[in-house]
């Protein structure tokens, strides 16, 4: 058992004070009728002298964040989920017993206050305490007022403390649900239906990623935590639901960095009778709707760049973008040998399973183009080798009808004109198995149930996947994914 600090010992000794008074140190239900921000907003423009004729009384509750004891009268502040508010408490208003109870309070304790609204001579909206109720004793002190949690790792590990002392963390925690609600309202307004699909799968399909593996005891089989939402949502298009989306947790057994967390929130949407252009319009409209309705602005500071979401977003093909940076035109017919020679000349390492023109094109894009796409850009025209679930371009079957949205040099969305040809899809799956044999541990399995579904007929469709965490990073202007996930994956303490 750990040893208590001196402050912790003092706080624990105070438990006896409450018990002797017949007060539960850890509280019961408490009825309040207002939140702190409502009171402060309502009275912020009323002058100090006008409060002589105002007798409004409110009941609030929250955590004590500041105390200034001054003999027979004191000031303290309490923080609820909306804001802090100052409280004035006097022995003349609450009586000696209650005032003495208050004097045993510590920063971090949770209390209830019924008080008359007033304003100090310095202009701060304040409640004059008429009734004081102890609710919960905090047995651990909060971090120092002016420093908070200075260890970034500890901020993420002890998010509950971070939320108490860090206003920016609280802001993000409340903004993220508003962003997601805005997305849901936007999708619902376009007649999409929100659905839920399985998290546990027996096949590795829907994306190129390493999975987390678990075991189902009853069936005695290994299963994967899903790496994508795609396949079951497409099956719903076959079933006639026509416009579906899901926002859900997805799992990829890969590295952690400021832009990646192994457990993340993905949204995928599929629209029958649409295509790549439809997904571009949907995406641009959705981002602009969030900007307008949640934030009332279109410019956001992210990762050292001012991102402007207004206006028409840029569209560029992958081969044109590479040509602009390198002078190499990959849109022309090219042998694997020619492509490998270009890669060698540009010091690009090509793994065994990447020894085809399509993979080499993508490697050139990643080296020379990706980080330069700062303002919102739809990058389209990917090679067929790196897009196993996408319909081929009818004019040039070496490429597919796919786009990725890039902002600030990072991928934000991935969209397809969906492949609905079961014969072509089976051939693509088989090609993935060959890549696995050559060392690609992110290659897809063959999903014969999905092939069977396609054989019943899936309507032409557009589909897209959005990384919700990265989207929230942009709108909340945070450089690290850990700041927009309440409980990010952390390394174990040594």
Description of the structure:
With 494 residues, the protein is α+β, with helices and mostly antiparallel strands. It folds into 2 domains: 137 residues, Nucleic acid-binding proteins (OB fold (Dihydrolipoamide Acetyltransferase, E2P)); 258 residues, Bira Bifunctional Protein, Domain 2 (BirA Bifunctional Protein, domain 2), CATH 3.30.930. The protein is 33% helix and 26% strand. It has 15 helices and 18 strands. An 8-stranded mixed beta sheet has the order 6-10-11-18-17-16-15-14, sandwiched between helices. It has a 5-stranded mixed barrel with strand order 1-2-3-5-4. Strand 12 and strand 13 form a beta hairpin. Helix 6 crosses helix 7, helix 7 packs across helix 15 and helix 8 runs parallel beside helix 14. The longest helix is centred in the middle third of the chain and has 23 residues.
